[in-house]
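Hi R.,

Quick one: here's the Protein lin-52 homolog sequence you asked about.
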Amino acid sequence: MASNSNTSEGGEEDKLLSLERLDRSSPDLWPEKIPGVTEYEVSQNLQSKNAGTPRWLADLEKDDINLLQEFGSLTLSQLMEKVRGLQNLAYQLGLEEAREMTRGKFLNILAKSKQQ
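And here's the predicted structure, written out as C-alpha cells:
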C-alpha cells in the first residue's frame, strides 16, 4: 500500500515538470530597458572586483579599522551606552569651549591688534 502512494506522488510530480529552457542571452526575448546599462553594469562590476578594497576602507587607518571592529562586536545595549558616553563627552567639550571663549573674551585675546 505504501509503494502505491509513492508511485502516484512521483507521477504527479512528473506532470508538473517542465523541460523548457529559456535562453536569456537573446536580445529579442529580453530587451534592455535602457540601452547601454548592461555594458555599464559589467564595467562597474569589473572595476569593483579589480579594486580589491573598497574606496571608503582605503582611507581608514589601522586605529580606525580597529575601532570599527570593536563597535561591530558590541551588543545593542553596549553600543547604545557607548553612544550615550560620546554624547556626554561632546556636551562636556562644548561647555569647556564656551568657558574658554568667555575667558578669551575677558582677556581680550581675540581682539584685532591696532598695528594691522
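Residues 11 and 27 are 37 Å apart (CA to CA).

Cheers,
M.
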